[in-house]
Amino acid sequence: MKVAMIGTGYVGLVSGACFADLGHKVVCVEIDETKIARLRRGEIPIYEPGLEDIVARNVEAGRLSFTADAAGAVPECDAVFICVGTPPREDGDADLSWVYAAARGIAGHLSGYTVVVDKSTVPVGTGDEVEQIIRKANPDADFDVASNPEFLREGNAIDDFMRPDRIVIGTNAPRAREAMQALYRPLMLAETPVVHTSRATAELIKYAANAFLAMKVTFINEIADICENVGADVQDVSRGIGLDSRIGTRFLQAGAGFGGSCFPKDTLALTGTARKVGRPTQIVEAVMAANTERKRRMAEKVIAACEGNVEGKTIGVLGVTFKPNTDDMRDAPSLDILPLLQQAGARIRAYDPEGMGEARKHLKDIEWAGDAYGVMPGADALLILTEWNEFRVLDLDRVRRELKRPLMIDLRNIYTPDEMARAGFEYHSVGRPAQRP
Predict the structure, then answer these.
(1) Between the CA of residue 395 and those of 231, 400, 402, what are the distances in Å?
(2) Are 141 and 310 in contact (CB under 8 A)?
(3) pLDDT tens digits along 295-351
(4) What pTM did the predictor assign?
(5) Domain residue spans in the chain?
(6) Are 367 and 348 within 8 A, CB to CB?
(7) Phi and psi for 297 in degrees, rounded to 5?
(8) Residues near 124 by Cβ (< 8 Å), separated by ≥ 6?
(9) Cβ-contact 150, 178 below 8 angstroms
(10) Do 198-437 and 2-197 have the same topology in CATH?
(11) Can you say whether the dihedral through the CA atoms of 177, 182, 187, 189 is positive or negative?
């Protein structure tokens, strides 16, 4: 099939490359000509493991191309995916201006039957508006609008696309359903579950999924606080409840709070939709408030571990992105925690394997190190904010020698209290009693 992806951000580029790898002929459309030039040179603007290889392979095979010319790309396509950003507005609602602009841009170039697919995360009713925009701009166009939400985890996006938990297709139009099934046929042959729904239902599924996962993260963080005060171990609690098949183990890792491009934005948008229809989501609103408070409390936890005072102290920080295997800084806990520590008088020396370039745009007065050990010399404490694999295998003897004081504050629980005690550290983690040598 011939496919156009409107937008070469995270979702558009990953999905386009993967559709090409499934054998379809894909053109990615982007108004930023500088970005198109970079992509044509093989320069990938985001960090996602495996993406550079899959792009190069399919460009070479002639299945994947990049252009700024929608007029040359959209005609004759069987499916056109809208993959543009929907950032939150000041009132919390999703900003759909780029989605609607994409719809207007597509409308005049449709030729033959085409499925226009909302891949962007959008509130319920957006597909209806997209359909009206196209119909008004091009009354003679032969098309249907479908919703096909993405469930890509940053750092695992290629695998999530190629081996998804499910594929959600939202449309009541038989031709659109057939076209979408043909598009995903290679994955359906592998018995991937396909959920066929109405357009509105598909739009809501995405928001409901992310809100539920955000709730799980917030729940286990609150349980972690209880654990610290009663002498329990949150990781054992997590495993004990996660083995219940009704609950599951995923997203029950206590930490510094959720961030990223999806959970904060989508929970906010869902609460906005709920308020508009007169059904406020009290649970989701509580999750958002608790997550905001979580980041402040994590800063207080670091200060408390430093004997209640970080004035003039140097804190070495490992990891600033919201999760490992990405350079994404959107709503990363570090954006709240590190400024709070700076306000309390701390000096911050930090390192992240992929995120420092982006972090420099958001975090000020940070001394950036060249590697993990570069944050440590003479530091009063070592703080782990992101669980990159390379931080899990530190030479603890070297770490202890480099630090002014053998104090580690691990907000991702990547070490165990027993091993840290044997290594001679004072060790503070999340949801477990503090360990002193």
Answers:
(1) 29, 9, 11
(2) no
(3) 999 999 999 999 999 999 999 999 999 999 999 999 999 999 999 999 999 999 999
(4) 0.91
(5) 2-197, 198-437
(6) yes
(7) -70, -30
(8) 200, 203, 204, 273
(9) no
(10) yes
(11) positive
Contact 265, 258 (CB under 8 A): no
The string of pLDDT tens digits covering residues 347-380 is 999 999 999 999 999 999 999 999 999 999 999 9
Cβ–Cβ < 8 Å for 204, 197:
no
- pLDDT band at residue 262 using 50, 70 and 90 as cut-offs: confident
Q: What is the dihedral of CA 136, 141, 142, 146, to 10 degrees?
A: -50
Copy the structure tokens of residue 19. 């559709």
Distant-in-sequence, close-in-space partners of 309: CB < 8 Å, separation ≥ 6: 303, 344, 345
For residue 352, how many other CB atoms are within 10 A of its CB? 26
pLDDT band at 401 (very low <50, low <70, confident <90, very high): very high
- Domain range 198-437, its CATH number among 1.20.1260.10, 3.40.50.720, 3.10.350.10, 3.40.640.10: 3.40.50.720
User: 92-110 b/e with 16+ CB inside 10 Å = b?
Assistant: ebbebebbbebbebbbebb
Report the mean per-residue pLDDT for the chain.
95
Sheet containing strand 426-428, edge to edge, reads 366-368, 347-351, 314-318, 381-384, 407-410, 426-428
Token code pair at residue 320: 């600033």
CB 159, CB 331: distance < 8 Å: no
Q: Enter the tokens of residue 299.
A: 């800063």
Taking only the tens place, the pLDDT of each residue in 70-111 is: 999 999 899 999 999 998 888 878 899 999 999 999 999 999
Rounded average pLDDT over 418-431: 96
Question: In degrees rounded to 5, what are phi and psi of residue 202?
Answer: -60, -40
Q: Do 175 and 148 form a contact (C-beta atoms < 8 A)?
A: no
φ, ψ at 195 (rounded to 5°): -105, 110
The strand ranges marked E within 109-162 are 114-118, 143-147
Domain 2-197 -> CATH class: alpha beta
Active site residues: 262
> How far does Cα 223 stand from its chain's mean position?
24
Q: Phi, psi (5° rounding) for residue 65?
A: -140, 170
Whether 409 contacts 399, CB under 8 Å:
no
Q: What burial letters (b/e) apply to 255-281, b meaning 16+ CB within 10 Å? A: bbbbbbbbbbbbbbbbbbbbeeeeeeb
Mean pLDDT, residues 369-392 taken together: 98
Q: Say which DSSP state 94 is in.
A: B
The identity of residue 26, as a single letter, is V
